[in-house]
Design goal:
With 171 residues, the protein is an all-alpha fold. It has helices at 4-23, 39-51, 68-82, 87-98, 113-146, 153-170. It folds into two domains: 31-102, Helicase, Ruva Protein, domain 3; 113-170, no CATH class. Helix 2 packs antiparallel against helix 3.
Length: 171
């Protein structure tokens, strides 16, 4: 007959086995297996799949993505490599189908000029603003330094009148 402690121990063991079993499920996930004629084709496949971005995933290449579209793209690249297509033909096919988004380093064309030159233009604009502000401030400083700190006779009379007015009011 099982005692209460043995039943609790058995329950904990079953829970532990269930958790361990659930942790092993991802290990049995489907892994793409492709057959290549030689190592050069395998290297080309690896290079292309790491250079091309998954259209569904935000910042993941198609080699690392588990999205169904990435699996389809890997299969398409494998097929095109088997058809002896060049890397450029494969990339052009992907761009024609999914746009420049599939490239991690987009080509330079009229639609990507802002992407390539925008940061440089912003940097130059910032430098120009800093230079403009510093020159304006230095001009203000030099103006105040060149003006004479001494008062002319008219200004001295106005100052004396003001001081006399405040002296009369306070007494």
């Amino acid at each position: 007959m099982l005692t209460k402690t043995r039943l609790l121990l058995l329950a904990y063991c079953l829970k532990f086995a269930l958790v361990i079993g659930l942790l092993w499920i991802p290990a049995f996930a489907a892994i793409d297996v492709y057959q290549f004629n030689n190592d050069a084709e395998r290297d080309r496949f690896h290079t292309l799949t790491t250079e091309l971005r998954c259209p569904k995933c935000q910042n993941q290449n198609i080699a690392d993505s588990n999205a169904p579209i990435a699996q389809d793209l890997r299969a398409k690249i494998h097929t095109m490599i088997g058809e002896q297509r060049s890397d450029q033909e494969i990339v052009d096919y992907m761009i024609a189908r999914y746009g420049d988004f599939v490239l991690y380093q987009p080509r330079m064309n009229s639609t990507t000029y802002i992407l390539w030159f925008g940061p440089i233009l912003l940097l130059l604009l910032g430098i120009a603003i800093v230079i403009f502000i510093s020159r304006r401030n230095s001009a203000k400083i030099s103006l105040t330094e060149t003006s004479s700190p001494e008062l002319d006779t008219l200004e001295q009379k106005k100052l004396a009148a003001l001081l006399n007015d405040t002296g009369k009011k306070s007494s």
